[in-house]
Amino acid sequence: MASPPKALAKQLLDSYERVGGINNIDNANLPSKSAIKDICCQLLELLFPGYYCNEIIRSSSAEAITTNKIVHLHQVLSLEITKSLEFSPPEGELLGDYNQKAKDLTCNFLQKLPELRQISSTDVEAAFDGDPAASCYEEIILAYPCIEAISIQRMAHVLDQLGITLIPRMMTEWAHSRTGIDIHPGAKIGSYFFIDHGTGVVIGETCVIGHHVKIYHGVTLGARSTSGGQRLRGLRRHPTIEDYVTIYPGATILGGETVIGSHSTVGGNVFILNSVPAHSLVTYEKGSVVVQDKTSMKPANA
Q: In this structure, what is the dihedral angle of CA atoms 59, 64, 67, 73, given to the nearest 10 degrees?
């Protein structure tokens, strides 16, 4: 080494003093990225038993295996939620011992798993029904990145709604790194949601997506502008996609007031800043966005 270890350590310590904001020394312990990764894997094992583990699960041993997984998950997730609460105490509460509160929140979250399994089954069904290349549900669960990304987001959304910070975003970013699908945990997503291929999809924090929505790769559901920075926190910035909408590759839909009406189809590479009515076909022709009524194929009032 060019510098002895002690000299280099001194230089780094000096930089810790000079460069603030990226140090976490003498502060609350933060949730562990490796622990959150393991928690995501364990949650997927519970949502899709027999798909995310090596051992065969027999009916005779399913209860014992599932119980043990829940007990272990409660322990490790409670610890990480405690760290989150210590980092960002609930509004109106004084800093204190959050161990019991973390355990209670973990129980509340785990109670949602049966409901999350039910809605995840609709996503698998939507993927199978929406892709003629799919041969079976097993292929969907094992090979389609959207199932992992959407399932993790749905679980992260529950934690987000419980007021837990850091962990939900860490979960969805873990899924993002594996699938190329970036869904903020704050987004509200209905049942039967299918993202075909998925690479490059971005869904923003305040986006609302209805039931039976299908989108393709490269789609962005984003904000018109983020130049306002932190002043925009908490405001609606992302679009609403109503039921039975299909959005083709490369489409960009922006804005908190933008609504894509139900049963509409948005063509590839379309850039949309304004709402379109239900039953619309939106395409890009000769340098302009064209909105037509699908039921009559006549121009519709956008």
A: -100
User: pLDDT grade, residue 3 (50/70/90)?
Assistant: low
- Over 50: is that where the pLDDT of 302 sits? no
How far apart, in whole angstroms, are the C-alpha atoms of residue 257 and residue 206?
A: 11
Question: Which residues, in sequence order, are bridge partners of residue 194?
Answer: 214
- What number of other Cβ atoms are within 10 A of residue 108's Cβ? 13
Considering only 49-58, 161-170, 247-256, 271-280, which range has the smallest mean pLDDT? 49-58
The dihedral of CA 166, 169, 173, 175: what is its sign? Answer: positive
Residue type, 234: G
pLDDT at 300 (0 to 100): 59
Q: How many CB atoms lie within 10 A of CB 260?
A: 28
> Are 62 and 49 within 8 A, CB to CB?
yes
The answer to whether 47 and 151 have CB atoms below 8 angstroms apart is yes
What contacts 33, CB < 8 A, 6 or more positions away? 170, 174
Distance CA 189, CA 168 (A): 15
CB atoms within 10 A of CB 114: 10
Q: Give tens-digit pLDDT for 15-62.
A: 998 988 888 888 889 999 999 999 999 999 999 999 988 888 899 999
Structure tokens belonging to residue 13: 């310590």
Residue 269 falls in which region: left (phi positive, over 0), alpha (psi -120 to 50) or beta: left
- Structure-block tokens of residue 15: 């930089």
Residues 6+ apart with CB under 8 A from 266: 245, 246, 247, 248, 251, 253, 260, 272, 276, 282
Q: Percent of the chain having pLDDT more than 90? A: 78
Distance CA 175, CA 169 (A): 10
Q: Are 278 and 263 in contact (CB under 8 A)?
A: yes
